[in-house]
Amino acid sequence: MERLDQFLEHKGLVFGIAYRMTGSFTDAEDIVQETYLKWSRTKEQLIRSPKAFLSTIATRLSLDAIRKAKRKKETYIGPWLPEPIPTNHDEEIDPDTLDLAFLHLLEKLNPVERAVFLLRESFNLDYGIISKSVNKKEDACRQILKRAKENLRSEKKKFKPDPELKKVLIHKFLLASSQGDPELLLPLLRDDIIVWTDGGGKIHAARIPITGKPRVAAFLIRTRKHKHYKNVEYFLIKCNGTDCIIAYQKDKPITLRSFEIGENEISKIHTVMNPEKLGAFTDKQKLIENGKLVPLGLFLLFPKKDFFGKQIPLWTKPLVNVIKWMFT
Predict the structure, then answer these.
(1) Which among 3, 117, 228, 278 is least surrounded, fewest beta carbons within 10 Å?
(2) Mind giving me the DSSP string for 285-328?
(3) pLDDT 10s digits, 159-177
(4) Which residues have a Cβ under 8 Å from the Cβ of 112 and sit 6 or more positions away?
């Protein structure tokens, strides 16, 4: 039982490494299981540090998973985006290396660079552990980290907006979108805005990134009127540590949208539509009961109030239904 307790103590670390490395909720869960099997089969006297051992195993399994997935990504239809995961409103996480935009950015790095960068920057592991995890000397790992930072520096977010500012912009974006006029969206979008849409060939979606304010505004309004979005329910959800919008159709998640903010404008929008990547959100009722889904109408009515983790007041339901009818 003691060994199981030791594993459970570090299970979050194992999942965190695996998820950030692979960008896949499904692969991360598989890696957690494989890591436990290796942990349980290894003699206790051979393990000096449970944290070092589990980190090393999780990293090596993640590197294997990335290499196996390389060919799949090369033939992937349209943009590839990481698989999103719900997070608790009060969860202590490292949002800079968990949000979808940053995980997408990490695709610029090769697998070893990605491992070294994450192990050091996200989990603050010492170079001894990192060296064993990637099978490189410590000095080489320091050089790899330096190179990885240089590769990311040009595109890494220069502005970290206040969460309240992000809520304000999302609120304005939703209200403007509901009017059906692209011109109303333009003031909220940065000139060089990019929209990435991941349908994976399973759902009709843009197969190239959409860029520029006019094109993006027109695209967002046009797609909102598509039959794919008929009879849907919208919710605000904490996803990858930040506020996102998720749409359900007959209790099935069909779209998740994440926003990246720069200065006072929206700079990037990541939209995941591939049903295979929305598996973490399939149990809608459980997410509602755990306070992770907030009806969008409630957010539109009370944008400054935090409803995450709380029971939705009964008196708000008629108002939410009216807003839902107007919005859809």
Answers:
(1) 3
(2) HHHHHTT-EEEHHHHHH-TTS--TTSPPPGGGHHHHHHHHHHH-
(3) 466 778 888 999 999 989 8
(4) 63, 134, 136, 144
In a domain, 50, yes or no: yes
Model confidence pLDDT, tens digit, residues 221-276: 988 776 667 788 899 998 988 899 999 998 999 999 999 988 789 999 999 999 99
Residue 154 has pLDDT above 70, yes or no: no
| pLDDT value of position 87 | 83
Residue 197 in domain: yes
| Chain CA centroid to CA 230, Å | 25
Residues 167 and 262 in one domain: yes
HSE toward the beta carbon, residue 142, CA cutoff 13 A:
6
Q: Is 87 helix (H, G, I), strand (E, B) or coil?
A: coil
- Contact between residue 200 and residue 223 where contact means Cβ atoms under 8 Å apart: no
Q: Residue 45 pLDDT more than 90?
A: no
Instruction: Look up the domain containing 64 and give its range.
Output: 2-75+109-153
E strand or H helix that includes residue 213: helix 213-224
Number of domains in the chain: 2
Question: Tokens 């000397």 belong to which residue?
Answer: 137
203 by Cβ neighbours in 10 Å (0-12 / 13-18 / 19+) ranks as: middle
CA distance 270 to 31: 26
Q: Report whether pLDDT(204) > 90.
A: no
User: 217 and 185 in one domain?
Assistant: yes
The model's confidence at residue 309, banded by pLDDT at 50, 70 and 90, is confident
Question: What gap in Å lies between CA 18 and CA 27, rounded to an integer?
Answer: 8
CA distance 224 to 232: 11
Which pairs with CB-CB distance under 8 Å and at least 24 residues apart come from 60-65? 60/133, 61/18, 61/31, 61/34, 61/35, 62/17, 62/18, 62/21, 62/22, 62/27, 62/31, 62/115, 63/21, 63/111, 63/112, 63/115, 63/134, 65/18, 65/21, 65/22, 65/24, 65/27, 65/30, 65/31
- Return the pLDDT at 328: 55
